[in-house]
Amino acid sequence: MKKSGIKKIILKLSEGLLATVTDLLLLQFFLIGSSLGKGKTSRGAYLVIQEAAKNWEEINYRTLKQAFFYLKRKGLIRSLLEPSITALGRKRLKKLMPQYQSNRPWDGVIYLITYDIPETKKIFRDKLRLILNRIGAGYLQGSVWITPYNPQQILKEFSHLFGFEGEIIVSCIGKDGYIGNESLNELLNRVYRLEEINNQYGKFLDKYRKLSLPSVDKWKAAAMYLSILKQDPQLPDDLLPDNWRGNKAYQVYLYLTKKGS
Length: 261
Fold this sequence. Notes:
Number of helices: 11
Order of helices and strands: HHHHEEHEHEEHEEEHHHH
Strand order of the largest sheet: 4-5-3-6
Radius of gyration: 22 Å
Distance between the termini: 35 Å
Number of domains: 3
Mean pLDDT: 78
Oligomer: single chain
Number of strands: 8
CATH topology of the largest domain: Arc Repressor Mutant, subunit A
CATH architecture of the largest domain: Orthogonal Bundle
């Protein structure tokens, strides 16, 4: 199979979370390896591969075995006899996977970011957009972004590094403020697609909250939850809708994927 075809399959299987077979298999080790690897035998490790092959019928067994040996060579799993990941493997997964933030302190201010970097300096505009995405800012329109988290220090460093002092402006809006004809809550809901994400959390809960642990496919449950979390801006609780399902979904995810189940 061509690499482009494999990548499409992987993205489909992992709900857009991961982009390589090795990362898919590493997550599989993390999710189900601990419950299979109670005895240090090679059978446990190969059971992980067989479970992956069952879930990912579109990827052939040989490709999965190659990924398995790659993980071992890179020190991401403990050994060929023990189906569990190493500290290095956990570190890699932490970088790949979205992380749920339980602590979301907020200073009660919404920050509006505007910039005036000419299109002739597109490379810097793109760098700035990348930074804004990484800090969780939401795109409003044109060269305007919004975020509930204070971006001033990061943007000050960016401006100083690339010589854009005075061309990036940060304004503050109170919790009860308006932008145009929209209230702040309406604006955040539109920019961050909160209603859509909340509906996805609802579907996850409808599917998994009443299932008993032995009947749950950890891989599918984790892939579904993490794919939603990846879209979630994880706004402060004060800015979330009253019926927000994200916190409950996280508790169900923890329960379903806990070790030893």
